[in-house]
Amino acid sequence: MTSVKGWAGALLGVAATTVLFAAFGQLESGWVWLGAVAMAPWLAALDRARSGRGAVLLGVLLSVTFTAAVFGWFPGAIAAYSRAPVWLCWGVFLLIAPVLELQFITAAWVRWYSRRQVEDAPRLAWVPPVLTALVYVGTEWFTPKLFAETLGHGLYASETLRQGADLAGAPGLTLGLLLINECVVLVARGPRLRPAVLAVVLALVGWGYGAVRLGQVRAAVHSAPSLVVGAVQANITNIEKLAAEQGTYEVVRNILDTHYAMSDALLRSGALDLLVWPETVYPTTFGTPKSEDGGALDEEIRSWVAERGVPLVFGTYDLEGEREFNAAMFLGPSATGELAQAAYRKTMLFPLTEWVPDLVDSPTLRAWLPWTGRWKRGPGPRLVDFRLNGGRVLKVAPLICYEAVFPNYVAAEVRQGADLILTLSNDSWFSGTPAPRLHLMHAAFRSIETRTAQVRVTNSGISAFIDPAGTWTSELEDNQRAGTVMRVPAADRLSSLAGAWGDWLGPVALVLAVALGVWLRRLRLAEPGAGRPSLASGR
Length: 539
What we know:
Elements: H1 4-24, H2 40-46, H3 52-70, H4 74-82, H5 86-95, H6 97-100, H7 102-118, H8 127-142, H9 165-188, H10 193-220, E1 221-233, H11 239-246, H12 248-269, E2 274-276, H13 292-308, E3 312-320, E4 323-333, E5 339-345, H14 363-368, E6 384-387, E7 393-400, H15 407-414, E8 420-425, H16 435-450, E9 454-458, E10 463-466, E11 472-476, E12 482-491, H17 497-501, H18 505-525
Parallel strand pairs: 1-2, 2-3, 7-8, 8-9
Antiparallel strand pairs: 1-12, 3-4, 4-5, 6-7, 9-10, 10-11
Helix pairs in contact: 1-2, 1-3, 2-9, 3-7, 4-5, 7-8, 8-9, 8-18, 9-10, 9-16, 11-12, 12-13, 15-16
């Protein structure tokens, strides 16, 4: 790829894959088929690379263009939050793109290297495509990704195909799509029967498995609701700005009065088993007040719950010594009939905006980035046994906002015996962007993987009930003020590999990639002519 024509073709491949990614990532049913071809232009461009350096460069380019095309809404949101210049946020975001999307780079180099190893051994032509797919999936698991995205998420738009996520999560869907793309590349070079047949078989297996599992999930769900939940989405945002203009007490007063009124409206519409308010809806510590006014407001919330006779879960802060946590507070009846209180502390905090690692936390950093968060990490995945009226104990797997993007974390909670996943979130910083719907999609995958129903309540959208098939209903859209009643049906528990093992495919893919690479290297060294110049040098 030394000629101008060669580089033009390579750049065209990067551009084509970027455009296809952008369309596939819209989560629209009409674009689901793009997943089968989205990677093909870039893979074909890699196969024309004449050096490892050229292949890596194509990986870097795709990491940057992909980040800009799919997550172009993020720099503007961060600029609004931090009040930093938009150009600076864009610059930093694109600069770290190769780290956030490292799978493109590692897959590119491994593909080039393995193709060079097998270029005179047609019987081993299957190795580079398989190795590329394994390294891609393994790298996504190993490296940090702010949004935990993967190619397989685009299949959410297909109710049938997304059911395959209960085997190996979204990464399992990614692996299948990568292998189909590899078949497309081979067929594009000339009519070839085997890769065409393999692509069709892979697609039919994915569709068939999804159809069977979807039927099982539907059969397991009963018609009668086992839980009736009232969800309040008040759409009160920019709380810090409001507090600076009106005073903290007045803002908190307005938040509570609004939620009281909206909750009372839901209660008048029918009996509820549970009320849920979103993340940090009570933007101060609960149970450990910092002022006399705070203590009075704490007592007011308790009295309101006791008078209505309906258990409440709401987002607040929890304090232990000088350590403050983002928390979900559970208020409900106890075995003695008195009001009981339990707190769940958020563990998976968004870097910098919520939490700064102790290793880099310093007065200098705080001076440079005054918007950095000061919350501490909670103790990890845990179940909350929450007593409802009538003595029923509901086993809740609580999640707060960002935690919904971590498959292992959610699976660890559900394995403790959860009846329901309950997510409180605050997506107001990203209102008006694709982020709220993408976040909801991530949450839906957690329900598919664990086959567990989920109630998701946000302050500004998107709130929804998610069933074990990943379908969301009772939806409150972004930037909408409304309350809704979510009727959670009773369902027989279905087991799943992803629920039992969590995000298992990533480490397995890395181990298999290493084993395959070592085998290939030893095989080639054992053959005549193995003393040729090092292929890794690019000569």
